[in-house]
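Continuing from the previous page...

OK, I double-checked the sequence for Alpha/beta hydrolase against my notes and this is the correct one:
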Amino acid sequence: MMSTKPTVVLVHGAFADGSGFRPVAERLVAAGYPVALAPNPLRGLSSDAEQVRALLDSIQGPIVLVGHSYGGAVISAAATGNANVKALVYLAAFVPEAGESVQALVEKFPGSTVGESLKPVPLPGGHVDLYIDPRVFHAHFAADLPAAEAAVLAITQRPATGAALGEPAGGPQAWHTIPNYHLISGADRIIPPAAQQFMAERSGATVEVVEGASHLVFVSHPATAVALIDRAATEHAQ
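Thanks. Re-ran it with the corrected sequence; updated structure tokens here:
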């Protein structure tokens, strides 16, 4: 029997990979949701969005599209024009307006440790890959996770190019027309909570705040993340 529930598509952000979604994916599958993990190369905002858009175009039926951090900027572009995407869920995510970059948004409010956390690796042609320095990954990126778990996540992180983080979003952005939900991490040291609140209010989002949560709120509070995804699906895609 085919599932009557929408497909939940998960999009990771920078300095992460898809494995961080495992606790969320397990709960979604147990609840009967089809789940897909979208490729996010972290090479450039427009090209990353094209990769995700291609996957969305291959899925039949309604979709709930979920993005963490930089992945929020990616889904905001990738969902544009796709009538199957019924709701957007942002998990401690960037939600840019056309013309804004994630770099500009992270600098809009005080409190981010990104600048002091980055470890650059020069690439050919003058480009650069950016990692979160493993020495500060736990404190700055995943403070509410056990140290041993944060250490593994630091090892398995994938870099984003500096160009991707600095690339302005094109337009239009999908959150203008698609209902959206924001899970705000209340102790985030990457995207300041004030910045997350600003973006959520601007997009007219349904908002839930997890007090004391780090930037990896969906890893430390997977049941809360899944409950918000389920709410988005129930209200708009079933």
